[in-house]
Amino acid sequence: MIFNNRVAVVTGSAKGLGAAMVQRFAQEGVKVVVVDFDFEKVNVVVEQIISNGGEAIGFKCDVTNREDVKALGEKVIEHYGRLDILVNNAGITRDSSFKKMTDEQWDAVLNVDLKSIFIVTQELYKYMEANNYGRIINISSVIGLSGNFGQSNYSAAKAGVIGLTKTLAIELGKKGITVNAVAPGFINTDMTKVMPENVKDKMVASIPVGRAGEPNDIASAVAFLASEETGFISGVTLSVNGAMYLA
Ligand SMILES: NC(=O)c1ccc[n+]([C@@H]2O[C@H](COP(=O)([O-])OP(=O)(O)OC[C@H]3O[C@@H](n4cnc5c(N)ncnc54)[C@H](O)[C@@H]3O)[C@@H](O)[C@H]2O)c1
């Protein structure tokens, strides 16, 4: 994969899929910005990358807070002088049956999983536009395609991510920026750790490739879409789910 002196911001990268993405980018020679509101974990990831010979800085940021995000953009430019790749990865779940879903659960998930992409992309794409080059990857989910019992908030947000990705691909294309979504299936991270063992076993048994996904499976797909060779791929949703759900 080709990356010439590129700089990447990955939101929610203190652990899970985001941490795998920044580590993968760093291995490819990309300078990374580890962004999360859990600053202790941000520092651990930054230190790991640096000790493996990569380049990384960390930033504490709540992606739902526009002021935090503006400050993030300024810091990236101050430190690296450019921004080429943005992965909107931060996400949460607040599961409940539709009948019992509260306004609080609905708003929390819609804010972090969907509105933050509006805020972060609006504040940061201008730095890509300045160089007429950019790669934006938004993390959706298989649940945004299939729906799921107990996840009306999450499936609405993740389906929204796909619609937003398509519109941004149309609006930002002439600025040299591609915008794509990745829809992970069932991946082993803290997000899925909380599921009951019997539900997890059933889910894994239903995956045709015969295993759960690992964070590196997603990091590879994201790295591909972020590389320089993919300039004619825009507006797509890449499912990375072991054929668990075929959209
Ligand atoms: N794990 C899976 O099976 C799976 C499947 C499909 C999609 N996804 C999506 O992938 C993304 C990453 O998931 P994960 O499994 O790594 O989750 P995770 O819970 O392990 O990590 C998410 C990270 O996002 C951070 N975060 C949450 N809210 C934030 C905010 N407001 N500002 C800044 N950082 C914030 C958390 O601190 C955490 O470090 C999410 O968007 C999730 O919906 C995960």
Notes on the structure:
The structure is a single chain. The chain is α/β, with parallel strands linked by helices and about 250 residues long. The protein has one domain: Rossmann fold (3-Layer(aba) Sandwich). The chain is globular, with a radius of gyration of 17 Å. About 45% of the residues are buried. The mean pLDDT is about 95. The structure holds nicotinamide-adenine-dinucleotide (NAD). The site of nicotinamide-adenine-dinucleotide (NAD) has 28 residues, from helix 1 and helix 7.
Report the count of strand segments.
Answer: 7
Please give the share of residues in helix.
Answer: 40-55%
Q: Could you say how many structural domains there are in total? A: 1
What do we call the CATH homologous superfamily?
A: NAD(P)-binding Rossmann-like Domain
**How many helix segments?**
9
Mean pLDDT: 97
Q: Sheet with the most strands?
A: 7 strands, parallel
Radius of gyration: 17 Å
What is the oligomeric state here?
A: single chain
Strand neighbour order, sheet with most strands: 3-2-1-4-5-6-7
Uncertain residue ranges: none
CATH secondary-structure class: Alpha Beta
N-to-C span? 27 Å
CATH fold topology: Rossmann fold
Give a list of the ligands: nicotinamide-adenine-dinucleotide
Q: Judging by the overall fold, what is the CATH architecture? A: 3-Layer(aba) Sandwich
Order of helices and strands: EHEHEHEHEHHEHHHE
